[in-house]
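Hey L., structure's done. Input below.
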Amino acid sequence: MNKLKPFCQGFFSTHFAFPKTKPCVIPRRFLTTTPSYRPMAFYSLAPLSYQRVVQLKKSLEKNLSALGVLGRIYLAPEERIGGINCQMSVPLSRMDQVKDYFKTLEADFGSIEYTQGMQDTLTPSFQKLRILTKRNLVAVKHEIKYKELKDQPDYLTPEQWHKELKEKKEDIFLLDMRNHYEYTLGHFVNAIKMNVDTFRDGVELLDELVENRPKDKDIYMYCTGGIRCSVVGPYLKNKGFEHVKMLKGGISAYGKYIKEEPENSLFK
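Output:
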């Protein structure tokens, strides 16, 4: 089965209804005996069946809660944009066990590449573990389906990204695929602002921004963690754009890459 490279409230359907479950509450012993946590995230666009989503939800709830993991995880079936989007606070003492567990899910998500926070924390970023199912892993107005996401953009490592942006300077077509308020908080030099409130609206604006762009010219794009670009990148390639490039791991990965030399950061 072909899978894309990685990097849950109700399921609105007239045919299916996910069973309702309460959020997992982590036993107090994990909150009081674990001294520090590591922020970790990953996503994978994957062709999950409805039945498999139900199975995975139960498995994640059981295994991650037993390991003291806190966070928010979204699952969606392949009817539209399917896969998993995961943000976690992982006890340092349980790191290897958490990674070993996700290795057992490689048949679903492929080889997982984690984006880790810039620094470990004394307290978790989340108060509980919530695993939610959605109809669409990424909300878009267009009817984009998993099978349309196979032609992925070129993934640039933070080091490659930094080098190319530095070389091109003003001579670059660089899209910030986040919301306008996120852009205001900080963005890459020479990035084009998406003046929208939601990513859903951003896809429509994207059509306007690239309308007169030659199909053989480079298009660079970035977002917070990468998942939005993994959706709109194929969308642009399906429109005929040949050279679409994205920041692998998003701003989160770039921040970790540049943290030792903040004075050289291209994110302002």
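The first strand starts at residue 37 and ends at 45. The first helix runs from residue 28 to 33.

-- N.
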